[in-house]
Every structure is written in structure tokens, then in C-alpha cells.
Amino acid sequence: MDKLLLVVKVAITVLVLILFVQNIAVVEIRFLTWSLTLPLALVLVVIYLLGMVSGRSLMGLMRRLSADRGRGPRR
């Protein structure tokens, strides 16, 4: 099982490296009045990390709300 996990990790690492190499073109990102010029690969990584953080936060909030619902009303 450890070897399979290692193979999966190596495969994911190789795919990420390929993603970086193929997407080094510079793109302009605009948000409201801000404007940034960054490599596309970096933009993809930042968006992925923001998605991970927001997804984890949302799951934590849902767990907390379901736990509070199970305890009944607070006094």
C-alpha cells in the first residue's frame, strides 16, 4: 500500500510540473480596480489554494452547525 501511495504522489508531482512548464505564459488578472500580471501557472496554484481554504472553512462551518443542531437550543 505504501508503494502505491508513493506512485500516486510521484504521478501527481509529475502532472503538476507539466502544468507549470506548459503554462508559463504571462496573463493579466483584473479584479475591480486592481490589475496584476502573473504567470498562468501561479494563478492556477493560487486559485487552487484559495479553493482548498474556502472548502475546508465551509466544511468546518457545516460540521459546527450540525453539531449545534444535535445538542438542542442553548440557554
Largest sheet: 2 strands, antiparallel
Give the tally of structural domains. 1
Estimated helix fraction: over 70%
Stretches where pLDDT is under 50 for at least 5 consecutive residues are none
H/E order of the elements?
HEEH
Strand order of the largest sheet: 1-2
Helix vs. strand class:
alpha+beta
Our estimate of the beta-strand percent is: 15-25%
What is the C-alpha radius of gyration, as a whole number of Å? 20 Å
Distance between the termini: 50 Å
**How large is the count of helical segments?**
2
- Mean pLDDT comes to 86
Number of strands: 2
Shape: flat
Protein name: DUF1049 domain-containing protein
Domain Lipopolysaccharide assembly protein A: 22-61
InterPro entries: LapA_dom (IPR010445)
Pfam families: LapA_dom
Structural notes for this entry:
It comes from Halomonas heilongjiangensis. Keywords: Cell membrane, Membrane, Transmembrane, Transmembrane helix. InterPro entries: LapA_dom (IPR010445). Pfam families: LapA_dom. The protein contains 2 helices and 2 strands, in the order αββα. The chain has about 80 residues and is α+β, with helices and mostly antiparallel strands. The protein has a two-stranded antiparallel sheet with strand order 1-2.
Summarize this entry quickly.
The protein has 75 residues and is of the alpha+beta class. Helix content is 71%, strand content 16%.
